[in-house]
Every structure is written in structure tokens, then in C-alpha cells.
Amino acid sequence: MQQGGNVERRTILKAAGASLAVAGIGATATACGGGSGSGDGAVTIRYAWWGGEPRTIAIKKTIALFEKKFPKIKIKPEFTDYEAFWEKFQTQASGGNPPDVFQNAVGFLRKYDKRGVLLDLKSQADAGNLSLENFRNGVLANGQVDGKQIAVPVGANTMSLVIDLKAFEKAGVEAKFGWTWDEYFDALQTIQDKLKIAGDTGYFSIMYLYDLYLRQNGKAFFTDTDLGFTEDDLTQWWEDGYKRVRSGLVADPKKVEQVKPKSALSAGLAASEFTWDNFSIRYEGEGESDYGLAPIPTTDGKATGQYLGSLMLSAFSGTEHPKEVAQFIDFMVHDPEVGKIMGYDRGILATTEQYEAFTPADDNNKGVAAYEEQVAEAGVLGKITPHPSGADVIEAAFLRIGGEVAQGKTKPADAAKALFGEAKAAFAG
Fold first, then answer.
1. Phi and psi of 82, rounded to 5°?
2. How much is the pTM?
3. Chain segment 162-181, per-residue pLDDT in tens
4. Closest to 116 measured CA to CA, from 332, 392, 389
């Protein structure tokens, strides 16, 4: 894609994908394994994930395929919604009996590697039980910490801007690749003036968006061990955001709460929302307008700060069946039939075998794939930002405290001080 100019309509891509929650695992592991054996030589390993019913149906189909190919390995599924999943996992891991295989994300790798929960999968790769080849766009590195491979990606996604296509068209404004933040907010002001709706749903409490903004300015949200910005940086970010709430450019947080679990974008309260690209299927299902993926605003007209995140599979370091666990992970990330079944539920498929096996039939999923491909071709993708131990706690604090700023409950300077205080405690934990 060309930088700094208007994009053709094809680059405002139809939104699609499915939910990818960024979440973590926790607690201290012991040598107790989560799996079991039986008298006929078969072993059972536990596989846990969070997600909705469509994901569960698809994963159960992939488990059936695996058990057909590996009849001596039985899979015991464990699944629930996001919050209940992690409450349960925390208890299991504290008792030394977490699942053998489980979903994971980059924000939690260092934390639980530090606690000894995660198995280094390189040894199983060296033994021939797991292939670490054929991962797309360098995404395999997302699961690496200090030379260890403690997670393997199943999908990839990137931050995006979802827009109400009808609202943008009615207001006569156009999303442009390489547009600046000033140009973005000017466009939203035009939408507010002409359509009498807010431009944005609440951008300034999203940690991963602030990370992109910092990366555009030569910083990052995290270093390997600390925050990568100052209290003054964050105070300015939240002051600007709160001013836009007061002016009506950002949606009223009280109204945003009232329409939950529906998005403020699909509820018609605002014309745009920043989120991961494969989250975007929710808008088509919830709203009555048409929605598309648009470019991330920039500081310099070029660099977006974007990188590929991923949902991953990790293994428990104390599993009694590391070989079987590795064979299961290998199957789930490389088998073409698994790719066809899962589609883009957990992001764009991470390996070439699965990516090439799945051809999206609907415009929505085609749009997400095209969006990521065009971002990659634009040459703006960088390496993922480090996430030190405690990143999960800080992300939750950023969302909560940012919400307090939006509601006028906390002054931006006080909020920034509070965030840094909670971050210090999280890093020490």
C-alpha cells in the first residue's frame, strides 16, 4: 500500500474475524502432571481454552481428528467463558495441576515462565515431536522468551480501526493510509458536526493502542522489565482523551456502559473503534450499519507502530506426557484439516500449511486477511513489544483507570501516578 495518500475503497476492508481475548495463566507449578495413563497404554491429556460456542464446537472437531490419528492419546477438553476460565486455572495451577495444554498470549509469557509454569518446547522440537517451521511473518518469535520457546502461535492479528462505513460516507470523510492523528480527529469532528454522533468510542483506555502511539514516537509501553514511558507522557494522553469526551468527540462513557455487552460502535453511539482486527465480526452481528477495517492513524504519515499479536498454545512444565503434548500441539498448528475447521476464529492462521488450506468464503473473513496482508506489504510491521512479568495486571489497571478518567472521577495526572504505582507493585509481584 502506498504511504501518505488516499486509499482506494478496497483498502477500507469489510470487517470480520472472531473473538481473541488476551489473557493469562497463573500460579506456581509443581511436578504433578495434569494427564493420566491407562492400562492399555493410552494416555489422557487435558486441553483447556476459553471462548464462545462456535470456538468450542470447532475445537471439539479438531480433537476428534487428532484422536483418530493418535488413538493412544485421549484429549480431555476443559472450556468456559473468559473470566471463569482464568479463575479456575488460577486455582488449578496453584495446586500444581493445571491443564497439560492451554491457550496463552504474549502478555503472560514472562510472568508464568518466571513461576516455572511453562514448558520449553524446544526440547520436544529437537526430539522430532513438534515442528517449529513454516510460521508466517515471523510470528513464531511471539512465543519466545530468553531463548526458550514457551508458546506456539495458532493465529495472528494486529490492531486496527473499525469504522462505520455509512457514517464516514454520509459525513464525506475518508480514511487514508498514513493519515495523522490530527487528520483522524478532524475527520471525527466532521462526523460529529454533520451526524451528531461521537467520533470514537473511547480510544485512550486501550493499552495496546497507546503502545502503538508510543512506538510511533520512538518509545513503547513496556521495556523488558519496566514501563517505557513517563508519567508526563501518560498524563498528556489522558488529558487529551478527557477533553474529547467533554467535547463529545469521544462517546459518553455512561452511555457506553448502558449499551454493554453491545459495542458503542454497533449501537450507533460513535463512528469508529480501535480493536484487534479479528474481533471485528462482532460489529456485523450486533449493528445495523456496514463496518470496515481502516488504517491506524500515524504521527509521521508513515509508521503505524503495528505488529502481529497472536493467540498461542503453551504446555505445563510438569506434564507427565511431554511427548504426547508436543504431538498434540504440532497437530493443532500444522494439520491442514484443522486449519479448515478453525478458520480465522483465533486470528489469521499462523502456519503456511493451515493458511493455504483455508479459503475464506465470506467477504468478512476475506477482508481481515486482506487487511493483514496489505499492512505487511506496506512495510510498517515491527517486532512485538516486550511484555514483562506483571503485564496482565497493568493492562487491566490501564483499562480501569482510563475509564475513571473518561468518567471524570480521576484527574489525568492523578490517574497517571496511580497507574505507575500499580505497575511498580505488579512488577515486584
1. -55, -55
2. 0.83
3. 999 999 999 999 998 899 99
4. 389
